[in-house]
Write a structure and sequence with these properties.
mainly beta; globular
Length: 157
């Protein structure tokens, strides 16, 4: 069996192999969470965000390559310039009302349904695949209140 380097997210939110000289910090107690500073307009709980600058999360939107690279999901609602916690992997748990606000649904997520980054409104998701801009599946419904973060590549349409 050969050794392989792990795949990580770099500071730009892109996937890459661990680089020579870099190390992994195994002392993290909650590896799927990260602290970011809210970018333009702040964030609302559940918003998909991209890295708009170093350690800055701004609402993602699938109308441009740069803004469609979802890095995390906001765990809280904060104003622009305020620190917030975000999930970069795993399960996102919100109330059905919170999912309704983010996904345009009634009664939360649908189990087994894939949700895409919205290309019309920043910070929203939709179960309707986009036909223009960029396509990115970001969440798969597990239940009405739980979504699994999907790690898929952005597709230019």
């Amino acid at each position: 069996m050969s050794l392989v380097k792990p795949v990580i997210y770099n500071d730009s939110g892109e996937l890459e192999r661990l680089q020579a000289g870099d190390t992994l910090d195994a002392s993290v107690t909650n590896p799927e969470a990260i602290s970011l500073t809210a970018g333009t307009g702040g964030v609302t709980i559940g918003n998909p965000v991209y890295l708009s600058a170093a350690n800055t999360g701004t609402k993602a939107k699938a109308d441009a390559a740069a803004t469609s690279k979802v890095f995390a999901f906001a765990k809280e609602t904060v104003a622009e310039g305020v620190s917030f916690n975000a999930l970069i992997d795993g399960l996102v748990t919100l109330t059905t009302g919170q999912w309704d606000a983010i996904a345009g649904t009634t009664g939360g997520l649908a189990a087994g349904t894939d949700y895409f980054l919205d290309n019309a409104t920043a910070g929203l998701i939709t179960s309707t695949p986009p036909t223009t801009g960029y396509s990115l599946k970001v969440i798969r419904g597990v239940s009405t209140t739980i979504g699994l973060i999907l790690k898929e590549r952005v597709i230019k349409l």
